[in-house]
Amino acid sequence: MENDAKADGTAADTLPYALAEPVAPLVRRVLARNPSPFTYTGTQTYIVGAGSEVAVIDPGPAEPEHLDAIVAAIGDARLVAICCTHTHRDHSPAATPLKARTGAPIIGCAALTLTDTGPRADASFDATYSPDRVLGDGEALTGEGWTLTAIETPGHTSNHLCFAIEETGALFTGDHVMGWSTSVVSPPDGDMTDYLRSLERLYERKQDTVYLPAHGPLVDRPHRLVRGMIGHRRSRERQIQRQIEEGRTRIPEMVARMYKGLDERLFPAAQRSVLAHLIDLERRALVERFGEDWHLREA
């Protein structure tokens, strides 16, 4: 994830790894021990349901400690679905071994494996992910006391889904919206045009009262955050245009100027997001490229 605040996460010995914690009505969280500059404190796996049937959202990395903690959190309940918001390797690899241990089907986003020769900064795609059922936009899963509805939100990845609990107003936002940073949008699969369109779609969903992201704290004022995120992205594209006006026509030059103080480990992610903005601006006939150089397009 692109992170303007340079967060590495809290010290590992103070965090509740491998424990199921209630975080919202019908929802418990199990935090995976995979903190990094891109995952914050780690991937948050969610257990949905308080009765005899539960679902798991974003099972996370296939680490034995994390898998054991998920199974312990499920307890005597029946796991009816293993759901993934997308297939980056910090989100979906545990789906296959969790299915093997529980017999539950993998239901959610489509499979996607992409080979990218560019400097990807986000986690690569999970080649082991094999869903039993792909959910389309608006399709629902049900269990005792809960209903999960899939919301298509491409942008961070082309196969990204959010999941809404219809009974409570909670929305699981994966990597599309996070409370601790902005999400990296990395071409060729990441698409800024789609990402902004998906943000607008979530902003229009007034029934969502809290966001539960895959990384970082819950978001209790979601529409204000999404409005700010849209404004941030529009401000960033204007900043990119100013960089070009001032003669910085290559992405590394722009990033060095625009992201002063950013953790150097996150520079590749910032470069990918700037590229995504430039591709969006190019589609709108506002800039054009000549090799590695970008120029404003004359009216």
UniProtKB/TrEMBL annotation:
InterPro entries: LACTB2_WH, Metallo-B-lactamas, RibonucZ/Hydroxyglut_hydro, Sec-metab_biosynth-thioest, WH-like_DNA-bd_sf. SUPFAM superfamilies: Metallo-hydrolase/oxidoreductase. It comes from the Bacteria. CDD domains: metallo-hydrolase-like_MBL-fold (cd16278). Residues 42-215 form the Metallo-beta-lactamase domain. Signal peptide: none annotated. It holds the Pfam family Lactamase_B. This is MBL fold metallo-hydrolase. The lineage of its organism: Bacteria, Pseudomonadati, Pseudomonadota, Alphaproteobacteria, Sphingomonadales.
